[in-house]
Design a protein that fits this description.
By secondary structure, the protein is an alpha+beta fold. The chain has three helices and two strands.
């Protein structure tokens, strides 16, 4: 069965929290004043947040990360980690877009 909600873990940064609070302030100001300009600013801010989330997910799609320990790991002591990033094969739509066409020129006989 296909899940409607993916397994993404979303963490909000301090900047993101400030941005959400700014959106809330603009939403309250737009509601209180009834100013259409503030509604447009709010719509732009929310659209930028959605586009940012979409593009950030798209950037890391198809990347696999493996983390291995090097040696023994003991509490309260620094440890070395080996990180391996691997780009997975593209899906069919991306493969189709990235294929190159090759052809040999033909000489027409006159």
């Amino acid at each position: 069965m296909t899940r409607l909600i993916p397994d993404w873990e979303i963490r909000i940064t301090n900047f993101g929290l400030g941005y959400i609070l700014m959106c809330l302030v603009v939403a309250i100001a737009a509601t209180n004043t009834g100013n259409n300009g503030l509604y447009l600013v709010l719509a732009g801010m929310l659209a930028a947040m959605v586009v940012s989330g979409f593009l950030s997910r798209r950037n890391v799609r198809g990347v696999r990360c493996e983390i291995e320990t090097v040696g023994e790991v003991v509490a309260t002591r620094p440890a070395w980690l080996k990180v391996k990033l691997e780009k997975l094969p593209a899906d069919a739509s991306t493969r189709f877009a990235s294929q190159e066409a090759s052809y040999e020129p033909s000489v027409a006989a006159m």
